[in-house]
Design brief:
The chain is mainly alpha-helical and 503 residues long. The protein is built from 24 helices and two strands.
Length: 503
């Protein structure tokens, strides 16, 4: 209301000043004014007299000038004077009324179109304080979840659901068994029981303690946000802080942190989180299209002039699959020279700029053609550490399969069948410690990234050696849901048979 009083008073005062100028009476004046040209001629006569006094003009020349100027004055005088007049009083009133109405009405209409009627003044300090208040007073995770509709029952076989019940009972009996909680979190999420999934993931973080990774916290935050229908609660906010404190470059955590700031009216902070993600890529990461669709509007809300750069996916670079196929048909010398050139070019660019998963896949394929399996395996291992999302990792995995290095884990290796066999011959305590370490490592990777059927078979075999038949059975049931290809499923079945949970 104060704004309207002040702005209305200023607008009215301006209109009154303009109206007074139009209405005030003018000074008394003769009805006939001397023409302007006569005034000029009189000034010229005075100038002649001054020139004579200074000796600039002679007497004869001065007489001639006086005569000419006086003649012009007579001619101008014969043309008559100009009557001075004032506008009619009624016309002045009308003009003042029109100007005042246009000024007041126009100011209101313009403000109504481009202003914010009813919106209180928001200086920067007040806006920041309001954003912090919104962040502090947002709903809790439980309140967000209470507003969500009931999720439909998951489409899973009765056998699988029975095994999940057994897994739930197993973690209840052995609450300190880390791998059981990892499996439970993953399978509850797969069934759509997101609240149960994030509760299990919270237990995973508690059991790991200081060993909990940025990925553990990111998984937990993502589950909380999904359960809240996309809203970032204080609990999810804390999980994101845990992820970023362990890995400030974690792209998923940075995306969700930007989303949180957008929900709490800090688009400037959202821009600081999201804009570098667009630059850093990879351009085919699942969060990039979401950011690209909203970043310009976020920048506008923050008062930042920003234009999205071109999408790198429209400018694919590097050796294509056709290049690889053509290289395979060449002579060994020509093929090696051609592919080596492409590998050197692509490898140098990725070392400097990074690249999308498609470029990683191309590089692995190229090394496979060259026979550099060690190098291909190293790149595949690095890719597994770089790309956490299984869908993002899928094209790179295909390239690793074609290069024959898919079985290599993110650490460059994984527990082999020979490892499992040797473990069976150890002393019980040594065997359990060795296999538990391998199981934790492999299980965590499969939980976060997925993996080939060989890794699933190894994990089941390892649980069989440890005597964790319930968990081995749960993994085998999950594998049957995941792998529809019969050949892949047979590979996992071998591990299940070794663990005694399949025939």
């Amino acid at each position: 209301m104060t704004f309207w009083i002040i702005s209305g008073a200023l607008t009215l005062l301006t209109a009154l000043l303009i109206g007074w100028t139009l209405l005030r009476p003018g000074k008394a004046a003769d009805t006939t004014l001397e023409p302007v040209d006569i005034q000029v001629y009189r000034d010229q006569l005075q100038a002649v007299e001054k020139d004579v006094a200074r000796g600039v003009v002679g007497a004869d020349e001065a007489d001639r000038l006086r005569t000419e100027i006086k003649r012009r004055i007579l001619d101008a005088d014969r043309d008559g004077g100009v009557e001075a007049s004032t506008a009619p009083r009624e016309l002045s009133f009308a003009a003042a009324a029109i100007v005042g109405t246009a000024l007041i009405g126009g100011a209101y209409l313009i403000y109504d179109q481009i202003g914010a009627p009813g919106y209180e003044d928001q200086p920067l300090k007040k806006r920041m304080a309001e954003a912090e208040k919104i962040r502090a007073e947002r709903l809790t995770q439980a309140e967000f979840e209470a507003r969500m509709p009931v999720s439909p029952a998951a489409d899973a076989s009765p056998e699988f659901l029975e095994l999940i019940e057994q897994l739930r009972a197993a973690v209840t009996e052995k609450p300190d068994e880390l791998q059981g909680w990892v499996l439970l979190a993953r399978n509850e999420a797969g069934l759509g029981n997101i609240p149960a999934a994030h509760a299990a993931q919270r237990k995973v973080i508690e059991l790991k303690g200081d060993e909990a990774t940025s990925q553990d916290y990111t998984t937990y935050a993502a589950m909380l946000i999904q359960a809240a229908g996309g809203s970032v609660s204080a609990e999810a906010d804390a999980a994101l802080n845990g992820a970023l404190s362990r890995d400030p470059g974690n792209p998923i955590a940075r995306y969700y942190a930007g989303l949180m700031h957008l929900q709490t009216q800090r688009p400037d902070q959202t821009f600081q989180f999201w804009e570098p993600l667009v630059r850093e890529g990879p351009p085919d990461a699942p969060w990039i299209p979401v950011i690209r669709a909203r970043l310009e509007s976020v920048a506008a809300l923050a008062g930042i002039h920003y234009t999205l750069p071109p999408d790198p996916l429209t400018d694919p670079r590097g050796p294509s699959a056709e290049d690889m196929a053509a290289a395979a048909d060449m002579s060994p010398e020509d093929r090696k020279q051609m592919v080596q050139g492409m590998v050197d070019q692509l490898g140098a660019r990725m070392a400097e700029e990074g690249g999308p998963p498609s470029d990683w896949a191309k590089l692995i394929r190229a090394h496979g053609v060259l026979g550099n399996t060690d190098r291909a395996a190293a790149i595949w291992a690095e890719a597994q550490r770089t790309f956490a999302d299984p869908q993002t990792l899928a094209p790179i995995r295909e390239a690793a399969v074609s290069a024959g290095v898919e079985s290599v884990g993110s650490d460059g290796r994984g527990p082999t069948e020979e490892d499992i066999q040797n473990a069976a011959e150890m002393e019980p305590q040594d065997r359990e410690a060795m296999i538990r370490a391998m199981v934790d490592q492999l299980g965590e990777r499969l939980a976060t990234e997925g993996g080939p059927p060989q890794d699933w078979a190894r994990l089941i075999s390892a649980h069989g050696v440890l005597g964790n038949s319930d968990q081995a059975a749960a993994i085998w049931a999950e594998a049957q849901e995941r792998f529809k290809d019969q050949a892949a499923l047979e590979i996992v079945r071998e591990g299940a048979v070794a663990a005694g949970v399949a025939e």
